[in-house]
Each structure stands twice: as C-alpha cells, then as structure tokens.
Amino acid sequence: MRAVVQRVSHARVLVDGGVVGEIGAGLCVLLGVADTDDEAAAERLAGRIARLRVFENEDGKFDRSLLDTSGAALVVSQFTLIADTAKGNRPSFSHAAPPELAEPLYERFCERLGAQRGRFGARMAVELVNDGPVTILIDS
After folding, report:
1. Are 35 and 98 a contacting pair, CB within 8 Å?
2. Are 119 and 107 in contact (CB under 8 A)?
3. Residues 29-57: pLDDT tens digits?
4. Rounded Cα–Cα distance for residues 70 and 65 (Å)
5. With CB atoms 3.0 to 4.6 Å apart as the test, which of 41, 47, 92, 132 could cross-link to 84 if both were Cys?
6. What contacts 30, CB < 8 A, 6 or more positions away?
7. Which residues contact 102 (CB under 8 A, 6 or more apart)?
8. In angstroms, what is the C-alpha Rg of the chain?
9. Nearest to 41 by CA among 115, 113, 105, 94
10. In the structure, what pLDDT confidence band is assigned to residue 2 with cuts at 50, 70 and 90?
11. Is the pTM of this model over 0.85?
12. Residue 33 and residue 96: Cα distance in Å, rounded?
C-alpha cells in the first residue's frame, strides 16, 4: 500500500457534482493498493497514519497525531499511486490490485482509521486546502 497523506484545513470529494465525503481540519489520504497487499498491511498502515505526528504543539513542533487532535480523515482510493514509470512514458498499473482485492482492503483501512471516504472506483473530484503545506508519502 502507498499513501499520500496531506494535512488539511478542509477537504471534500465530489462524484457527479454531489459531495460524498467531507472533513474539516485533519488528514486527506490518497490510498493506492498493490496486488501484494493484505488485511494486515491495511491495518498496519492505518495505525501508522493515525499516530503520525504532523500536527503542531504549543511550541510549533510536529508533536501531535490525528488521535491527539481528534481530527478527521478523508480517504480517497487512487490506484495510480501504484504506477510503475521505469520504462517509457506511459505508466504501467500492472502491480495495482484488481478491484475485487483492492476494495475490501480500502474499506478495512477506512474503518480502522475511522475515516470519511470517497467512492471506490468512481471518477472523483477532490478538493482540499493543504495546511502548511504538509504532505508525506508512506509505503506499507
């Protein structure tokens, strides 16, 4: 699994012009599931992100996590994060998990994180305001 984690002041996901997920301050997570991932990877990565200290304490230092701040999370499935760009100019997605494997792992990840979510497999518009900006890439 690969996650792009962004600290946001707010974020939302729209499908066909309607809002399907929305949060205030917290984390927006773009999540890619690889064909080798399993439920243990989903659990482990969700726990790491929940405990990731990217929120500032009174001294302005990154010392607080999503759990510490009672912040929200919004997770968007994004198979393109598993792209292989080693050859040529067209990315290969051959290592992205097929939907029948990816969707249950995405759902498990969201449940473990207690997150709002986009709509798996849909064409989505993601709107967010990155706070900081703070953006971190995490591989499971």
Report:
1. yes
2. no
3. 999 999 999 999 999 999 999 999 999 99
4. 8
5. 92
6. 3, 4, 6, 76, 78, 81, 126
7. 33, 77, 79, 96, 120
8. 15
9. 105
10. very high
11. yes
12. 6
